[in-house]
Structure formats: C-alpha cells, structure tokens
Amino acid sequence: MSMMREEIVFGPIYSRRLGSSLGINLLPEKGKLCNFDCIYCECGWNADGREDRHIPDAEALRVALDAKLRECRESGAAIDSITFSGDGEPTLNPDFAEIIDITIALRDRYYPDARVSVLTNATRLHRDSVREALMKVDNPILKLDAPTTRLAEKINCPQGDYEVARVVEDMKLFNGDFVLQTMFLRSSDFDSSSPEVLEGWMDIVRDLRPREIMVYTIARPTPQKDLQKFTEAQMRTLVQPLVDEGFNIKIYE
Fold first, then answer.
1. Shortest CA distance to 64 belongs to which of 32, 29, 16?
2. Which domains does the chain have, with CATH numbers?
3. Strand order in the sheet with 212-216
4. N or C end: fewer C-beta atoms under 10 angstroms in the chain?
5. Residue 44: Cβ within 10 Å count
6. In terms of pTM, does the model score above 0.90?
7. DSSP codes, 71-128
8. Packing angle between helix 195-208 and helix 164-172, nearest 10 degrees?
9. What are residue 176's phi and psi, to 5 degrees?
10. For 144-173, what is each residue's pLDDT tens digit?
11. Closest Cα partner for 142 from 95, 101, 113, 175?
C-alpha cells in the first residue's frame, strides 16, 4: 500500500474532522515512527517505514511553521486547525512540549482563530511534560479503540507495555476537557459492534465524560486486508444510547 510521507509542515488539506487543516509532522519525512502498529493505519506497517530515522527538532519546526503560516496568510488561505498528525505518534518527538509552545505562539501571531489539535494514541500521558503540553492545546484528541488490553493488542499492536486501564486513568487527569477518538471496524476475529466490546467502550466513555467523542471508520486502504468498515447509519445506531444520555458525539464515515 502507499505510505504517507509528509514534510514538517504540510497543507492546508481538507480534514473530514477538522476542516481546513495545516498538518505538522514531527516524525521522519521518509519513514514512520510509532509505538502502535495499527492494523488500519493509512501509513502502513511500521516495518515498511524504517528507511528514515531523522526527527525534526524544535528550531526546525519553528522555521518551517513560521514560513508556512506567513505564506498562508499572504495568500489568504483558510486554516481552521493546525494539526499534529504525520507518520506516527507525535508525542514521541523529544521536543514535543517545546514545540507545542512554539506552535501556540505562532498561531496567535498569524491565525489567532485557528485551533491547535493533536492526534495522539495517548500512550505517553503518564509523562508530565507530554500531558501538560496536551492540556495547552485546543483539541487534545486522544485515541482509545478498544475497552480491553487484549483487544487493543489485536487492533493497535502496541510496541511495548500498554494497558487500557492505565491509559484510562491518565485520561481522567484531563477532567473531561479532551476529545476521545475511536475507530469502529471489524475483522475475522473481532467486531467493534459486538455487545461485549461496545458496552465496555460505552462504560469507559461514561467514566471519562469527554467533551466530544469522534467515532469514525476506515476511509483509506489498510495494511491488514480483512478489515470491514461501518456505515454512518450503523455507527449512529451503535452510539445512540450515549447520544440519548447527552454525550456530544461526531460520526465520520
């Protein structure tokens, strides 16, 4: 499958979840660096992206982002979100906390109405510097695809120690001021809509009470080939009990 290969700053591109999004890739431009190896990742398997290990530092980000924001402002380009995503897990960059401060300052200078968003697998929330940096951004978007560690191992293939219960405890430190992101999909040996999976996930949502929940499904080719997507109508039916309870849920097909 084709792999995403992004410069430090790229776009703006249209995001189905964030609008006109200026992307930031804090990871290798010609490789992939992630402590998950998700079976649905549009960047492919980790093993397929190891030819580049170079990670940009805070100063490289400052120069690239300043130039891009100035160019966008001069051309009149709309930016709804400055979004950390890229080819892997952005919080793995050792300068992540400093980079967030730089990004907020440059956003305030050039596009004060834009939101700063970070898409993260939430594995490093236990690190004070990472968690505090995420608490500064407008949209800390924290991933939780499975209600149990066993299922997370099937879907996310974590590279190292990972326990859903511990991650949930770290998420509680945000006091609900975050966006929860969950992928709905099925394969030959699991189904996000099965009662044990769905009810376990909904119980976690009720415990965390995030200000917004993004439920989405496969939109691009995936490295594991037996995966099946859900329709918007199917996902809406599945999460309706939470909607009825007042949760703010956005659904993306």
1. 29
2. 9-252 (3.20.20.70)
3. 9-15, 19-24, 81-84, 115-120, 139-143, 179-183, 212-216, 249-252
4. N
5. 18
6. yes
7. HHHHHT---SEEEE-SSB-GGGSTTHHHHHHHHHHHHHHH-TTSEEEEEE-STTTTSH
8. 30
9. 85, -5
10. 999 999 999 999 999 889 999 999 999 999
11. 175
CB-based contact 8:60 (threshold 8 Å) = yes
Helices 96-110/58-75 angle, 10° precision: 20
pLDDT in tens, 94-152: 999 999 999 999 999 999 999 999 999 999 999 999 999 999 999 999 999 999 999 99
- Range 105-135 burial, b when 16+ CB lie within 10 A, else e: ebbeebbeebbbbbbbbbbbbeeeebbebbe
CA distances from 203 to 206, 207, 241 (A): 5, 6, 11
| Cis before 12 (ω within 30) | yes
Which positions ≥6 away from 246 have C-beta within 8 Å? none
Separation CA 198–CA 17 (nearest Å): 22
Q: 3-class DSSP state for residue 224?
A: coil
Residue 200 tokens, joined: 């376990």
| Whole-number Å distance between alpha carbons of 196 and 207 | 17
Residue 253's nearest CA partner among 238, 235, 239, 240 is: 235
Closest CA to 202 of 228, 174, 240: 240
